[in-house]
Amino acid sequence: MPMQDRTTNRMLYSLKVSGPQTAAALADRLGVTAVAIRQMLARLHEDNLVDFEDSRETVGRPKRFWHLTDAGNGQFPDNHAGLTADILASVSAVFGEDGLDRLISHREKSTLAQYREALEPTSSIEAKVNRLAEIRSEEGYMAEAGRDESGAFTLIENHCPICVAARSCQKLCRSELEVFQAALGPDVEVTRLEHILKGARRCAYSITEKARI
User: Fold this and answer.
1) Among 47, 92, 165, 213, which one has the highest count of C-beta atoms within 10 angstroms of its own C-beta?
2) CB-based burial label for 141 (10 Å; 0-12, 13-18, 19+)
3) The domain that contains 31 carries what CATH number?
4) Is 99 strand, coil or helix?
């Protein structure tokens, strides 16, 4: 049914953005009965889109946490990453590693110029981080901005639309950290906390204001 399809999509999105969750948590988040959620999870499990792990956090029955499988993650856009990977491989084969480096460096400079132009109207660090999250979301990274318990700004990317290409050519995102740093300016320090290519479910960055001398 259409309603069930919409709810299923919302559930997949919730697992993508918020990570592993119990059926009860998903039901509460989506405003659907736990019975309906368990039925949808069972169907998605049969389709190999979700899987689960049982965790005994306290005395009693273990809690079942559901998460996306590789196939489930594949339901989200990849910006033709397979084609991109093939093109990068062809550039390397025809022009060598130096040619590939020049191509990626050109892309980085172009990306940085676009980010700087978009962030130029903003003044505060918070506004810059929020705007950068908006830009990255428009590019397919499902990004969100926030603050952690220490008060530092955070930039979280729940999806990598170029992951297939980046896995085959890690140079593609080698200076993402440097691009963010340059775009946000010299008054902040950007630190990568989580990285999808290193096995994390998302990429996460901490942005802290540098102490004024």
Assistant:
1) 165
2) buried
3) 1.10.10.10
4) helix
